[in-house]
Amino acid sequence: MNNSAQKPGLRERKRRETLQRITDTGLKLFLSQGYEETTLDAIAEASGISRRTFFYYFKSKEEILLAWQSGTGAAIAAAIQEQTADKAPIDAVLDAILSLASQFDANELVAIERLLRSTEELRASKHAKYVQQEGAVFEALCAKWPQARRRDSLRLIAMASMGALRLAVDRWVEEGTKRPLAKHLRETFESLKAELGRQS
Amino acid sequence: MNNSAQKPGLRERKRRETLQRITDTGLKLFLSQGYEETTLDAIAEASGISRRTFFYYFKSKEEILLAWQSGTGAAIAAAIQEQTADKAPIDAVLDAILSLASQFDANELVAIERLLRSTEELRASKHAKYVQQEGAVFEALCAKWPQARRRDSLRLIAMASMGALRLAVDRWVEEGTKRPLAKHLRETFESLKAELGRQS
DNA sequence: AACAATATTGCACTCAGTGCGAGTTTACAA
DNA sequence: TTGTAAACTCGCACTGAGTGCAATATTGTT
């Protein structure tokens, strides 16, 4: 019954607002007090909802942070689809990532990235996220190059690409985000391509 | 009285025994009841220790499982050091892994591997472990080939190797461990090398 | 207005993990 | 042998994440 075409819907609007309010205040509190030091009670209260309601929107505390980059895997996959098919897969991935990179707020991203390094639990979640994205990239590549003689090739490219992405973000954050992320991405992918085209 | 050369030590022996008893009974309970369904109280009681003492040996529940492959990162690094320097880095990593693979009990390994897939938390920890191992491999490679013109090359090899390891283990487990892990490792590394030597 | 679906909340509960402190066992040396 | 420091064990009380349940409120539909 509900046409997903056009319907702002009061309910849906409220939902998005609440969702946004939780992630906003959650991030703010994490940044000011630290992740583990911030309780769900504090987040719920600051968000104007009950503790119980929080779990209606998120299924865990760490999801607040992961939500910021929630659609990333699918977004990269979609961006890959939009790339022209004449370029090499590895370039398609890079260009797809670059096309998304501009949409993110750098300060926000680096803040989240730093939080994700603050505890073992969050670090682990971050890496799991990369693996999930690797899977999404791999499928997107398979969809775009279905005739690829060896899917292993695309699997490798997906792995290496996500590795490069991880490396680029790491360096970007460690360097204090002086140079733009896009620069790091280009550099890292450049040397990746150089190594890929070399005989070991 | 005690020779300073070798000291079994009653204390140290007890410690190892207790450690082993906890991991053994923990694994057994996880396998029979599931990871989340097994409480620390149950593990402690079955291990003949108090709940509080458990936390003297492990700092979290998941550490019981991670302990089984605790030294893996360092072990791979050490095995890389022992490889002859005439082979390519990627082959050194493969051979290092192969030299270790035989030391593990296949049934035990696959059981643990399956448990590590059973919950999101454990999956994340597993991936974090791979990243940690990647770092260890990278450092080992840097130590063995210090003159490498580009460290990026070794970084890539470390990333790709661990990716191949992950892939090989995945397929091995998914195939129901019919063929030996070494076979999968060789195959996966083989196609990895083939792709590395190809112009994208 | 009636009715269904979705959203909000409180309460009580389980369980992982920590801080503290007291008691026990082992190592080691006077 | 005895004393003692260090390592180990344990109980207790506590915090905080996450869940099940069931009651109430809000929104969408007819």
Largest interface: A-B, 31 and 31 residues
Number of strands of chain A: 0
Series of H and E elements of chain A = HHHHHHHHHH
Cα radius of gyration of chain A in angstroms: 19 Å
What oligomeric state is this?
homodimer
The structure class of chain A reads: mainly alpha
Overview of this protein structure:
The structure is a homodimer of 200-residue chains. By secondary structure, chain A is an all-alpha fold. Chain A has two domains: 7-59, Arc Repressor Mutant, subunit A, CATH 1.10.10; 62-199, Orthogonal Bundle (Tetracycline Repressor, domain 2), CATH 1.10.357. In chain A, 71% of the residues lie in helices and 0% in strands. Chain A contains ten helices and no strands. In chain A, helix 6 runs parallel beside helix 9 (151-174) and helix 9 crosses helix 10. Chain A is globular and about 55 Å long. The N and C termini of chain A lie far apart (59 Å). Residues 1-6 of chain A have low confidence and may be disordered. The structure holds a DNA duplex (30 and 30 nucleotides).
